[in-house]
Amino acid sequence: MSYWLIKTEPNSWSWEDQVAKGVEHWDGVRNYQASNNMKAMKQGDRIFFYHSVKEKKIVGIVEVSTEYYPDHTDAKDRFGMVDVKALYPMEKAVSLEDIKKNDALKDIALLKQSRLSVMPIRDEEWKIICEMGDTKPI
């Protein structure tokens, strides 16, 4: 199993929206590196659900339910999407500020590639962030 982080603007698509829908496609990604990360996702991979913009915190965990396929919102057929399924909220949201304060997370993609919307998370980073959020890692 691999781990990932996806960013969303909560005023466009929030954790509450994801939970209400259950399974939803993750479309609209128009960055090649982010798209390549989605291509690497496999069914069952776990993903941190991150509220960007003003909140800047990890609020929940979703999993890949359908692997990469063409994005119906891309008129030029260059990009794809995955479907994600809401699993559970973080017991305690983990803020970007708290991540920055943790020396063990100094190399996390969230800090190194802050504008990327879909990024890999290393196993150890996953465990640390779950611990910070009082949430079981799997």
TrEMBL record:
It comes from the Bacteria. Gene3D superfamilies: ph1033 like domains. CDD domains: EVE. InterPro entries: 5hmC_binding, EVE_domain, PUA-like_sf, THYN1-like_EVE. Residues 2-132 form the EVE domain. Pfam families: EVE (PF01878). This is EVE domain-containing protein. It comes from Kiloniella antarctica.
